[in-house]
Structures are given as structure tokens and as C-alpha cells.
């Protein structure tokens, strides 16, 4: 009997091992962390594909393809139907930390990566179920100038933990370069400078903030030589320079020094010849048109001029010059994707008629193009390509035609983790 019991146990052990091996093969074919999402429309960061599926494994996108080809690789499937899947949006001009905006709220409304411009310098963080947040650190400015004169009027010097860091008029080249080196060494995603002389009618920075009156313009700005030192040192370190400019004088200084990006479409009228030259030379503009709408017609004229230069020279290889940014944390714009910002960008950058490539330009400016401009080194950021971070959103309906839908995504994924999900898993075949 004892021998028979041993035989019986060995048989069960063999069966158990076979079962484990079988389960192992299934686990390999269907990773527990995988998700397969299918929809009528998939914008992959560059182009729109119809009736496709996105396979996510762990925190990465594995593939975009046909449902029939991918279904065998994942058992957790979401068939969204009449819906649109897109990469999570990238906000290139935010003040989230400085204004104490809750990261989760921004993420829930479709922004998966954001760049804070101005405020405490923080190392990059987030990205896996949390808002990926980049930081430029404080805005480099002239002593007595913007933004400290508005947001910290009692602090003329600022610092690395403040909204601005003042550079004295007599600061030497080595001193200026050392400041840039410090910012880069502590994780600054870009270097932001202010060349704001003040005085633009309707500009938000010309309105009182608190009890302090708005200082009389013109305000002190960095010298052209100081700006050249900043740009040179930033470029040596592989970082771009972002400039807050509101009018023609500041624009001229920034352009002459080789500044890469305007933090805003300027509020006051810019010399059309100068503006055309800058766009042709590859200067980029973070839009922020919605939040600066009170600046009036000059703002819209500048944005339209930027779009007009692109339309005239796109055939020559000129890149789309606008980068999506809504200045999250301002009270007059959504703390997430801003449909009106997208709408304004589309209408002001298109030709006489709006064509589908114009829509794609705007969507790219908030996804793949924004990621390329930030140059984070994160492979595939802003896209749904193989090995890209699994940062994506989905909306019910056609988000390519109705930008407003994007403000309230029905699904948000950050690094493969579902943050918002109004869809139910299904095993039904897709198309």
C-alpha cells in the first residue's frame, strides 16, 4: 500500500507540473499587465489609423495594429467602438507647482506630461500612474524686472526656489553661465528667461496681483549680451531657451541671441518682417492664445502671421512652428486639455480653408512634436509607437472633429496604469 501511495503521489505531481507549464505558456502569451484597446480611430501621434488596436504591456506600448493580429497576445481587451484613442497630451507651459494645482486633476483631464515654467526647480518626476512633471526652474530676469516685480514685489533677488531669479546688470559672463549650469545640473528641462518691458494693453501681467500696484513701464530686462551668454551656455548643455516676450523690443533681443522658443505668442504687434525671419529660421512658439485673449487683435495677428509663414513654406520643409500650451494654473483656462486652445491654433494657423493636415498639425503640436521639442530622451514620448510610454487617452466619439471632447476623456492611462476608465473590458471581436 505504501508503494501504491508513492505511485499515486508521483502521478499527481506530474499532472501538477504539466498544469504549471501550461499556465506558464498562457502567462507568456497573455501577460497579466497587458491591455488591448480597440477603437474606430487611433491617432498615433503622427497619423490617424482607422479600426485599429493598441496593445499595452506593462508600462509600454507594444504595438498598434489589427485586432485579429493582436488579440492572441492579451486577454484583457477594451473594445471602445465609436471612440478616438490618442497619446496623452503634453502641456509645454504650466505653473502647476507655483499655483499649487493638484497633479491628479491635471492628469484626469488628459495631460500626462507637463512642463512647469517658473517656480521651484524640481527634478523630473511622475509618469507611471502620476502626472509626469518637468521643470524649467525660476525665470531668469533682470533685477527689478518681471516676474518678481509682479509676483514677488518685496523680493528683488528671487532664487532657485522662487518664481524668478534676478541677474544684476553688472553680472559677469562667468556668473551668468554659472547660473545656467546650476539650473541644468539640477534637472531643468529648458532655461526660461524674461524679456518683458511691460505696458501691453490687456496682458495678464499688466493686471494687479494682490494689493501691490503694477509697476510703471518700461521694466528692466536682461541685456542683449547677457541673453547671448545664457543661450550659449544652455546650448552647450543641450538645453533650449524659452523666452517670455510681449512686444517687439524683447522679441528682437531674443531672436538676435538665438533663443529657441517664445513662451507665448507676443501680445503687442511684432514687426512682420522680423516675425517672418524668425519663423523661417525655425523659431517655435508655445501658443497660450486662449489665456492671453484679452490682449486683443495684435495677439491674433501675430499668431496668424506665424501660421501664414508656415503655410507659405511648408512645402520647403519648414516645421509647424506652434507648440501647444495653455498655461495650466491660470483661472481662465481648464486645468487639463484646453479645447478652445486647440480650436484657436487650428483657425489661426490654417490657410483660407481648414484641411485635415491642419488638424493633424495641431494634434501633433500637443503630442509628438511637443515631446520632440522638449527632448526628454524618453523614447517615443507623445506617440503610440513600439516601446513608447503607455500614456494615452480615449474619448467617446470623434475627438478629431470635436476638440471639446478631449477636455473630458473617458479613459486616461499613465505608464500603463488606468487613471480614468469609463469603458468595460470585453471579449467581443472588434470589426
From TrEMBL:
InterPro entries from the UniProt entry: Amidohydro-rel (IPR006680), Metal-dep_hydrolase_composite (IPR011059), Metal_Hydrolase (IPR032466), Metallo-dep_Hydrolase (IPR051781)
GO molecular function: hydrolase activity, acting on carbon-nitrogen (but not peptide) bonds
Pfam families in UniProt: Amidohydro_1
Residues annotated as transmembrane: none
Keywords per UniProt: Hydrolase, Signal
Signal peptide: 1-27
Amidohydrolase-related domain location: 84-419
PANTHER family: ALPHA-D-RIBOSE 1-METHYLPHOSPHONATE 5-TRIPHOSPHATE DIPHOSPHATASE
Protein name: Amidohydrolase
